Amino acid sequence: GQNIDQPTEMTATEGAIVQINCTYQTSGFNGLFWYQQHAGEAPTFLSYNVLDGLEEKGRFSSFLSRSKGYSYLLLKELQMKDSASYLCAVYNTNAGKSTFGDGTTLTVKP
Amino acid sequence: DTAVSQTPKYLVTQMGNDKSIKCEQNLGHDTMYWYKQDSKKFLKIMFSYNNKELIINETVPNRFSPKSPDKAHLNLHINSLELGDSAVYFCASSQEFRGSYNEQFFGPGTRLTVL
User: Fold this and answer.
1) Which of A26, A33, A95, B8 is the most exposed place for a label (fewest CB within 10 A)?
2) Do B42 and A94 touch (CB under 8 A)?
C-alpha cells in the first residue's frame, strides 16, 4: 500500500521561503507530483520528480530522494496568493494511479 | 477552452435521492478518474477508467456507479444518497493508463450537499 505524510498546516511570512516536506512508504514508485489547490478550486499541477535531485521552476522547486522516501516543495519569495493547500502525490505505474497525501495548508501572512 | 468540465458545480439534495454528475474532457486523454474530497480536504480516488473500461474501483459502495459512454466522458450516478456522501467530487484525466508520466488535469469540482 501507500503511506504518505505531510504536515497539516504551515504559516509563513510574505517574502520569506518555506519548505513543505513529504515522506512516503510505497509498494511501487514511478514518480512524485506536487499539486496546488486554492480554497474552493481544483488541484493544479506544480511539479514532477522521478529522479533524485532538485527541479526548479521559477519561485517553486521540488526535491526528491528516492532512497529516503522523501520530497520537499520549496517556495521562495512568498506572495499572499501562495496561500493554498499543497498536495504531494506518489505515482505507481503498476497500479495505474497516483495516491495523494492529505495536503499541507499554507497560510502566508503580511 | 475548458480542458475538464463538470456539471453541475453545486448539487443540494435530500437523503435517499438519486443524482448524477457529468464530466467531459477535451484533451484527448485515455484515462479518467473520479475523486472524493471530504470536509477535511482528503482527496481519495474512487474510480478510474481507461478508454471506457473500468480499471480501478477503490471499494466504493455500489450505490456509486460510474459510466463512460466514450473516452471523453465519465459520469457518476449515486443512488440512495446518504449524509456521508456530502463532499466535493472531482473528475480528472491523464494522458494514458500506466504511462511513464501521470500528470492529472482536474475539473472544477461538484460540491454535493445531502440534507
Assistant:
1) B8
2) no
Question: Is B34 an 8 Å CB contact of chain A?
Answer: no
- Chain B nearest-CA distance from A76, in A, is 23
Look at residue B61 and tell me whether its pLDDT is greater than 80.
Answer: yes
| Cis, peptide link before residue B8, omega less than 30° from 0 | yes
pLDDT of residue A47: 95
Rounded mean pLDDT, B34-59: 91
Tell me the DSSP string of A28-93.
--SEEEEEEE-TTS--EEEEEE-SSEEEEETTEEEEEETTTTEEEEEE-S--GGG-EEEEEEEEET
Least confident of A65-74, A98-107, B34-43: B34-43
Residues 6+ apart with CB under 8 A from B95: B27, B29, B30, B31, B101, B103
Contact A96 B41 (CB under 8 A): no
Identify all chain B residues contacting A85, using CB atoms and an 8 Å cutoff. 41
B39 — contact with chain A (CB < 8 Å)?
no
In chain A, residues with a C-beta closer than 8 Å to the C-beta of B100 are 30, 93
